[in-house]
Specification:
- The complex is a heterodimer of chains A (846) and B (213).
- By secondary structure, chain A is α/β, with parallel strands linked by helices.
- Among the domains of chain A are: 41-139 and 147-250, Dimethylsulfoxide Reductase, domain 2 (3-Layer(aba) Sandwich); 571-631, no CATH class; 678-845, Beta Barrel (Barwin-like endoglucanases).
- In chain A, the strands form eleven sheets. Chain A has a six-stranded mixed beta sheet with strand order 21-23-22-28-20-26. In chain A, strands 9-10-11 form a three-stranded parallel beta sheet, with no helix packed on it. A three-stranded antiparallel beta sheet of chain A has the order 12-13-16, with helices on one face.
- The two termini of chain A are 41 Å apart.
- With 213 residues, chain B is α+β, with helices and mostly antiparallel strands.
- In chain B, strand 7 (172-182), helix 8 and strand 8 form a beta-alpha-beta unit.
- The chains are: A alpha/beta (846), B alpha+beta (213).
- Strand 11 (413-418) of chain A pairs antiparallel with strand 4 of chain B, so a sheet runs across the interface.
- The structure holds iron/sulfur cluster.
- Iron/sulfur cluster sits between chains B (75, 77-78, 80-82, 105, 109-110, 112-113) and A (5-7).
């Protein structure tokens, strides 16, 4: 955090100054480790063992926050008799189809209550009654943020002793995740684990909270979503969600990467985490809504969210009579993610590619596949502040150097359009804490530089002008695409776009809140979770009360946080079931019985007038189905899910699997790696075999303070280039001795994909770990360099080393844990480079 | 170290050389020579404060003081979202500093945020459209309007050529796999919104950004 989010780290230091204990769990020693109380070096990819052992510690020691767990989580829910755990099936859950490498989650469902209406009628969607459909919808891309629907009337056991209640299922599942296993699999000694476990238990409960902060060190794995799930289970058990000082905090790496997820330039979702429709299952609006998340909880208003979006997009053309133009939406048929798209380029299905402020030729895993894809396009548009390698691969890419590509044989037509910088346009970024902040424009962009708003708006105008009367052109023809134009370049008004995103009511005025959205077509809203950001015709993200206003702790008057300017999500859980703060020290929101309202320092994340004692009538829908003690209002049952009966592609509980490429055997199960992981076994996507003696070392990648991702925004800057001029690899003194590596000299790092060269940094910051009785070395590589572009400093591309192996829920690649070899000296140049890799691959396969 | 560095600073101007005339405030001999900052620093006075002071430093004013206006902005690198103040004079960005009012950053910027003025003002910045024709070996220049028309032509043509109305089983697809897009995490919400809106209307579904990576 101190390396990659330095200014955010000041708040960790503030907490430490007030007595917090700071643990840093990371394969490498960084500036964060230097400031932490304890640094725990961990083997990359073994985090579920550590988190699972903490869960086991809490459960076996009776350290859970019982009252919180009982009321706010699904601990008491009973699971179907058909469910089989990985403990029963040696690393598989019930329902696995080895041919399709997918799960049918029907057996993971809750056991239905015998006195309730049959599932499938309650809440629109539930477990056993719809197993077949769930087997299909287990494709993770079909879930929105509401997650899967769940049985609204499960059987429960409030004593938490029934062998099939979630609490007991958890206990059995994690029983073998012990401190001994942590030592063997993660390389963290038992005494250090004990200190961590004791501290988090001591620092959780009514008076105290513990926070977990993570970044791509947890997400970039073939079980990345389950890493986060494991942290969620731990935090729910300890009562650390929805409370000040608690939570699981994702530190995101780009100025508006949160915003680009909320208003997604992502294939599987529409704005506000509504799922994209799927071919066959979502032929019309009703069919879509029937399986686009639950009908109970606030997700139950999904029709209003979607209809308001369709009205924002297709205006007066969207009517009740035509399903509000639902049919204009294109349909998915599976994985259309970044890596599948790149393979589509190589295969020739993808012809044209827009790359907007991104540099995949350097920044994505398996850079060779990226560049072979680029070289097979008809046309490529690159918009950036600098001439990134993605725009220049045809002229100076590594494959030109190896002779695999020749410039005059590459047919790709390339347009490079220079972009306006952040001070040359106005608009909002959404930061890592869901806070929208409006930027004022300082100056006009120079020359041909334009904002991306300008580019897409004027491209859209031109494309619309080229449309015909054909039916396939109708969605573009009817698209609402009129924004006020300003200034000499006819810049579309960003404020007008933000206002459309924030929602407009029947009277033409900006809406106050998403609860005002209607499903009858009378409201328009480009992203329902951002609804209210223009309330009262005030650009709320532009608010700049010094230090955030009267309460600098919450800072409610600085920018605007979605939803509804709430700063802590699910904060109903900061109060006890009766609506009183768990303790004065941790008071955030509470029920004011005299006024009959929720109140407090933050905006309460529940219906403001629903008393804690409220119990919903049977058959209620949307938020009316939630009781006064249900804090997790987006979930079908209002509960925090310790166990996920649906919604995940790889199981209802986190389970330790080895990374796709690992030097060791899975210490827990016969199943080595995540059985549902996504891989692309084809000649242009090679893999290192597991436990290969040819690739004996763990490879992990990371960032440095002075550079930014693939370097497009940092390598061309003299200050930053000077501060970190050269690619290096970090190795321990022991590994250096084993391989003859010299500090300051060169090393060549080899995988099945390619070999790169880097300067050697021999440092005790990388520590050899004892794993399963033997020494495992890790090689660390920052990935900011590329061969050229506008970079003032150059270097080989670290990401070229990495495999295309993805998490099955979110299709994120495993770039934090792979295997490699490392040898002294520079890599061969030209065709000899490919020859070296070819030899390694033959040996590795043999 | 500091004294040696300051004493040999090649950027020191003539005005920093020993001034002529004047005496020491404490009345002892030595006068102007003794007031020469280099000498005072070499003699061991605190190099950070009084000893580093000269007529030139007294005349220095921060770049920010001459700004015509100040725009409130946000750092474009990571997602901490540090507040920035962008100082402008004569239509040019003269300085970018941390915004002390921000409850997130309290005026601080890390090396990237502190270097962000170079992102805007560095002389090597690209400000013209570049075009590489198929099988071409060099960049060519292209007028922006022409480039926009050419791109629009290609979008429309590729969409037509690769349109999928239904799949083999007759299920509605209404899409194209011929056009893909990557990027968004460095852009504004409003930009992502127009992108998703336009691409979806076009039927392009392979729309991705760094959040996937
Ligand atoms: S100044 Fe540094 S910490 Fe702050 S937003 Fe920019 S990159 Fe992030």
């Amino acid at each position: 955090m101190a390396e990659c989010h330095p200014v955010g780290f000041q708040w960790v230091m503030e907490a430490k100054a007030r007595g917090a204990t700071v643990f840093h769990i990371d394969p490498r020693y960084t500036r964060t480790s230097a400031m932490a109380d304890v640094h725990l070096p961990i083997r990359a990819g073994s985090d579920i063992v550590l988190l699972g052992a903490l869960i086991n510690h809490v459960l076996s020691g009776g350290h859970e926050f019982r009252e919180y767990v009982l009321t706010y989580t699904n601990a008491a829910h009973l699971v179907s008799e058909d469910f089989r755990d990985t403990e029963d099936l040696d690393g598989l859950f019930s329902g696995f189809d080895p041919d399709g490498r997918t799960y049918d989650p029907a057996s993971w469902a809750y056991a239905h209550r015998s006195d309730a209406p049959p599932p499938g009628e309650v809440g629109g969607a539930s477990g056993a009654g719809r197993g077949r459909e769930h087997a299909e919808t287990a494709e993770a891309e079909t879930y929105g943020s509401g997650g899967a629907a769940a049985d609204a009337a499960p059987a429960t056991d409030p004593t938490l002793t029934h062998p099939r209640c979630v609490f007991q299922v958890l206990k059995r599942h994690f029983a073998r995740y012990t401190p001994e296993l942590v030592e063997r699999a993660c390389g963290i000694p038992r005494a250090e684990f004990a200190r961590l476990a004791d501290t988090i238990v001591a620092c959780s409960g009514r008076d105290r909270t513990t926070a977990w902060v993570y970044s791509v060190g947890w997400t970039q794995h073939t079980a990345g979503a389950q890493f986060i799930r494991a942290a969620a289970i731990l935090q729910l058990l300890l009562g650390n969600i929805g409370r000040p000082g608690g939570g699981i905090l994702a530190l995101r790496g780009h100025a508006s990467i949160q915003g680009s997820t909320d208003i997604p330039t992502l294939f599987n979702i529409l704005p506000g985490y509504l799922p994209m429709p799927h071919a066959g299952r979502h032929e019309d609006l009703d069919a879509y809504l029937a399986s686009a998340g639950p009908d109970t909880g606030f997700w139950g208003r999904k029709r209003a969210y979607l209809v308001s979006l369709l009205k924002a997009w297709w205006g007066e053309h969207a009517t009740a009579g035509n399903d509000f133009c639902f049919g204009h939406l294109p349909r998915l048929t599976g994985d259309h993610g970044h890596y599948a798209t790149v393979l589509g380029q190589i295969d020739g299905t993808v012809k044209g590619y827009f790359v907007i402020g991104e540099n995949p030729a350097v920044g994505s895993s398996g850079g060779r596949a990226q560049r072979f894809g680029l070289a097979n396009l008809d046309w490529l548009v690159v918009r950036d502040l600098t001439l990134v390698e993605t725009a220049t691969f045809w002229k100076d890419g590594p494959e030109i150097a190896t002779g695999e590509m020749r410039t005059e044989e590459i047919g790709t037509e390339v347009f490079f359009l220079p972009a306006a910088s952040h001070v040359e346009k106005e608009g909002t970024f959404t930061n890592t804490q869901r806070l929208l902040q409006w930027r004022e424009k300082a100056v006009d962009p120079p020359g041909d530089c334009r904002s991306d708003l300008w580019f897409f708006y004027h491209l859209g105008k031109r494309v619309k002008a080229r449309m015909t009367g054909d039916e396939i052109d109708r969605p573009v023809r009817e698209l609402a695409w009129d924004y006020p134009e300003e200034g000499p370049h006819a810049e579309p008004s960003a404020a007008a776009v933000l206002r459309e995103i924030g929602g407009i009511g029947p009277d033409g005025r900006a809406l106050d809140s998403y609860t005002e959205l209607r499903d009858d077509g009378s409201t328009r809203c480009g992203c329902w979770i951002y609804c209210g950001c223009y309330a009262g015709e005030v650009n709320r993200p532009a608010r700049r009360e010094p230090r955030g206003g009267a309460d600098p702790w919450i800072a409610p008057d600085w920018g605007w946080a979605w939803p509804a300017n709430r700063r802590i999500l699910y904060n109903r859980a900061s109060a006890d079931p009766d609506g009183r703060p768990w303790s004065p020290a941790k008071a955030l929101v509470w029920w004011d019985a005299a006024a009959g309202r929720w109140t407090g320092r933050d905006v309460p994340d529940c219906e403001p007038d629903k008393p804690p004692g409220h119990r919903p009538p049977s058959g209620a829908r949307a938020e009316q189905a939630l009781s006064g003690t249900d804090p997790f209002i987006m979930q079908a049952d209002g509960k925090g899910w310790l166990y996920a009966p649906f919604g995940l592609a790889d199981g209802p509980l986190p389970t330790h699997y080895e990374p796709h490429e690992s030097p060791v055997a899975n210490p827990l199960y016969g199943v080595q790696a995540n059985p549902a992981r996504v891989v692309y076994p084809r000649p242009d996507s090679p893999y290192n075999p597991p436990r290969s003696p040819r690739f004996p070392y763990v490879l992990t990648t990371y960032r440095l303070t002075e550079h930014h991702t693939a370097g497009g925004m940092s390598r061309p800057l003299p200050y930053l280039a000077e501060l970190q001029p050269e690619l290096f690899c970090e190795v321990s003194p022991e590994l250096a001795a084993e391989r003859g590596l010299v500090n300051g000299g060169w090393a060549t790092i080899v995988t099945s994909r390619t070999a790169i060269e880097a300067r050697v940094l021999v440092t005790e910051r990388m520590r050899p770990l004892r794993i399963e009785g033997r020494t495992v070395h890790q090689v660390g590589l920052p990935y900011h360099w590329g061969w050229g572009g506008d970079g003032l400093v150059t270097g080989d591309v670290a990401n070229d080393l990495l495999p295309l192996a993805l998490d099955p829920n979110v299709y994120i690649q495993e770039s934090k844990a792979a295997t490699c070899d490392i040898i002294p000296g520079r890599r061969p140049a030209g065709p000899a480079l490919r020859e070296l890799v070819r030899r390694y691959r033959e040996d590795g396969d043999g | 170290m500091v004294r040696a560095f300051v004493g040999s600073c090649p950027g020191m101007s003539r005005r920093d050389q020993p001034p002529g005339g004047g005496g020491r405030p404490d009345g002892r001999p030595g006068g102007r020579i003794r007031r020469w900052p280099v000498l005072r620093q070499l003699l061991g006075e605190d190099p950070r404060a009084e000893a580093a002071r000269s007529a030139r430093t007294d005349a220095l004013r921060p770049r920010t003081a001459d700004a015509d206006h100040v725009a409130r902005s946000v750092c474009p690198y990571c997602a901490v979202g540090c507040g920035q103040l962008v100082y402008v004079r004569d239509g040019r960005v003269t300085q970018i500093e941390g915004d002390p009012d921000s409850p997130i950053s309290r005026g601080r910027l890390c090396p990237k945020g502190a270097a962000s003025r170079q992102l805007v003002t560095r002389p090597t910045r690209r400000t013209r459209v570049l075009y590489r024709r198929p099988y071409g070996t060099e960049w060519e220049t292209l007028d922006l309007e022409t480039a926009m028309d050419m791109i629009a032509d290609r979008v429309v043509a590729t969409r037509r050529q690769t349109w999928q109305e239904t799949d083999a089983e007759g299920r509605v697809l209404r899409r194209t796999l011929g056009i893909a897009s990557l990027g968004g995490a460095t852009l504004d919400n409003e930009e992502n919104y127009l992108m998703k809106k336009l691409y979806t209307a076009l039927g392009a579904i392979q729309i991705e950004n760094q959040a996937r990576i």
